[in-house]
Amino acid sequence: MNKLTISASMIGTIIEWYDVFIFSSAALYIGEELFPSTNPVVATLNVLLVFALGFITRPIGALIFGHFGDREVGDIHFSILSSFPEYPPEL
């Protein structure tokens, strides 16, 4: 393998797991703000459930969107099409 490929892979993995660490470390505080409840354990479990759902659905989305991006539409065109839902909230 190419050294550049290995380095890019390592950097991406380090950033991804740093994100996981930060989110899981802040789960208590996020639970208090987003899921107000009389029981803090339930709020924390709700945050971790949302995190787990995002962690599980990411590979499923990659399979679906990867298929269409590679075979049907093309990488550049599908990248532009998939970013359209992000535009209205930013206006």
Account of the 3D structure:
This protein has about 90 residues and is mostly helical. The chain has one domain. Helix content is about 85%, strand content about 0%. It is built from five helices and no strands. Helix 3 runs antiparallel to helix 4 (about 75-80). The chain is extended, with a radius of gyration of 18 Å. The N and C termini lie far apart (about 45 Å). The mean pLDDT is about 80.
Task: List the defining traits of the structure above.
91 residues; 5 helices; 84% helix
What share of the residues does DSSP label as strand, in percent? under 5%
Spans of 5+ residues with little confidence (pLDDT < 50)?
Answer: none
Secondary-structure element order, as H and E? HHHHH
Give the CA-CA distance, first to last residue. 43 Å
How would you state the average pLDDT, rounded?
82
Helix tally? 5
Radius of gyration: 18 Å
Counted up, domains total 1
Counted beta strands: 0
Helix content: over 70%
Tell me about the largest β-sheet: none
**Outline type:** extended
What would you call the structural class? mainly alpha
